[in-house]
Design goal:
By secondary structure, this protein is of the alpha+beta class. Helices cover 44% and strands 20% of the residues. The protein contains 3 helices and 2 strands. It has a two-stranded antiparallel ribbon.
Length: 79
């Protein structure tokens, strides 16, 4: 019984370390540049002048991933 208690205590001590979210090694600027350089993304963005584009990058520490958003100021896109 004592071994079980010690094992449970050790497991509880390790949970916060294992559950800690990793920090991103990328900056917002670098993550955005990588996304925009993707061939499919770059191909689609050729339809819109660079001056009309806006980007936003958000890092989720919970999931360890970036969300990159790109939009244009041109009205009626896709019509």
């Amino acid at each position: 019984m004592r071994r079980l208690g010690v094992a449970a205590l050790c497991a509880l001590l390790l949970v916060p370390a294992a559950g800690a979210a990793p920090k991103s090694k990328l900056t917002e600027q670098r993550a955005t540049a990588i996304f925009l350089a993707n061939p499919k993304v770059a191909s689609w963005l050729r339809h819109f002048p660079p001056k009309t584009r806006t980007t936003d990058a958000t890092y989720s520490a919970q999931y360890g991933s970036w969300t990159i958003k790109v939009w244009t100021s041109i009205d009626k896109v896709g019509e």
